[in-house]
Amino acid sequence: MTVGSYHQANLDSVLTDSGRLLPGRALKPGVIVDWDSSLAADARLGDQVSIGKHCRIGRRVHLETQCVLGNGVVVGSNTHLRNVTVLPNTYIGRGTRLRDAVITPTGLFDLDGHFLPSPDSSVIGRARGNSEIQTGIPSEKLSVLEMDSGRSG
To answer: Would the pTM of this model clear 0.70, i.e. be above it?
Structure first.
């Protein structure tokens, strides 16, 4: 599976209108927010956005279109995301602008599969304070994508 097809599979699984019941609440057609996630009142959500449980979305965040955020994701204020999948327990720092990527706690993959490590954990890092009990994802466990990135670079 390529990174691009992984991102598309995420979009297809949570954002298609196939009659499935998704957990959480629909804010508008094509926008789902799972339970116990908080969004700042001035956060803007475009079309085809899915936010997992226990996420925190800061002030003036813009999730433009085709964004899938896993459980326990924290997005800092003034951040702009477009066409991204964000893996669980990932922190995206304030003022960050990202598009066309799969974002992990250690960096990001462009949709062609090239890995770019995070220059600083204040830009992209592991979300703190999201325990396994809340998110269902062990905070110490690296995803398959992260483990693969460690071997290649």
So the answer is: yes
